[in-house]
Amino acid sequence: MAVNPERKEDVEGPGDPVVRFQSYLHGGTSSLLSTLPTLIVFPVYKTVFRQQIHNTAVHQAVGQLCKEGPVKLYRGVAPPLVMRTLNGTLLFGLQDTLLHQLSSQKVISTSALPAVAGFGAGVVEAVVFTPFERVQNVLQNGQNDRQLPSLKSVLVKLRAQRMASGFYRAFLPIAARNALGSSLYFGLKGPVYGVVAEQGLSPEASSFISGTLTSMAISLTLYPLSVLVANMQAQVGGEVKGVVACWRLLWESRHKSLALLYRGGSLVILRSCITWGITTAIYDRQEKRSG
User: Fold this and answer.
1) Region of residue 7 (phi > 0: left; psi between -120 and 50: alpha; otherwise: beta)
2) pLDDT tens digits for 179-232?
3) pLDDT exceeds 60 at position 17
4) What are the Cα distances from residue 49, in Å, to 119, 138, 203?
5) Most exposed among 7, 12, 213, 223, judged by the fewest C-beta atoms under 10 Å?
6) From CA 101, how far away is CA 140, in angstroms rounded?
């Protein structure tokens, strides 16, 4: 990451194993501490999910959740909490490791290294966390409540499916979304931090704002892929269609309207701004203190 120039690896060398371990540790810690906002805004995330699946307005999605009651409001919260913590550990640590491996090769320009390393980390992230997202989306779909009432029942059902239609349903769009998102995050965060810091703000505020603005741009750009993934993963069983066929069905169900496709996008921006702003600020603070 190109946020704090006074990084510990600059002193101890790019191959120091302690430095590499700290990147994983700091990534996991920052993501763990940001799980409180995740808990708080989970109803917002679930509202967005209902909009993505059923193409409903905000008040209709909120009405559905209120009708189901508080017990089911947090159904499906466990996978994102676990995934959030592990995601930060893998994403930040692996990106930092790849960054220094690529630096030693000297075949890629220095300015592009964070983005390229982020792309690689995003692909690995997709391989590891697609099953978590699959389980989460099945649990959040209210239409599955009777057939799959518990986490155990969902796991048993998915285990009985083929990998491509079970735990790894929608892997290709997830890989594209995560790889592009990680590449944009690590590629833009440093330059944005530099611009914000020039305004005289503190390092913590600059990190928070850089994480917020970067995540906002990523969410807006890649939101259609998240909608596609949610629709592909929400159901279990039935006819399994490919990515192109699912995209055509989704586009037609939204009456070929970008406004309808982006329904719920404003809530995604809110959630991303909170979680990634805090995560970025905590991670950068830890990196600065260790350096």
Assistant:
1) beta
2) 999 999 999 999 999 999 999 999 999 999 999 999 999 999 999 999 999 999
3) no
4) 26, 11, 34
5) 12
6) 39
Task: Give the per-residue SS3 of the chain.
Answer: CCCCCCCCHHHHCCCCHHHHHHHHHHHHHHHHHCHHHHHHHHHHHHHHHHHHHHCCCHHHHHHHHHHHCHHHHCCCCHHHHHHHHHHHHHHHHHHHHHHHHHHHHCCCCHHHHHHHHHHHHHHHHHHHHHHHHHHHHHHHCHHHCCCCCCHHHHHHHHHCCCCCCCCCCCHHHHHHHHHHHHHHHHHHHHHHHHHHHCCCCCHHHHHHHHHHHHHHHHHHHHHHHHHHHHHHHCCCCCCCCCHHHHHHHHHHHCCCCHHHHCCCHHHHHHHHHHHHHHHHHHHHHHHHHHC
Residue type, 275: T
- For the cut 90, the answer to whether the pLDDT of residue 55 exceeds it is no
Contact 26, 290 (CB under 8 A): yes
The CA–CA distances, whole Å, from 193 to 35, 155, 190, 255, 289 equal: 23, 42, 5, 39, 17
* Closest CA relative to residue 89, chosen from 28, 1, 34: 28
Q: Are 125 and 90 in contact (CB under 8 A)?
A: yes
Angstrom distance (rounded) from CA 227 to CA 179: 17
Query: What is the value of pTM for the model shown?
Result: 0.80
- Residue range 151-172: mean pLDDT, rounded: 94
Contact 211, 189 (CB under 8 A): yes
Distance CA 115, CA 99 (A): 9
Q: Is the dihedral of CA 148, 154, 156, 158 positive or negative?
A: positive
Instruction: Encode pLDDT of 22-36 as tens digits.
Output: 777 777 776 666 666
Q: Give yes or no for a contact between 271 and 44, defined as CB atoms under 8 angstroms apart.
A: yes
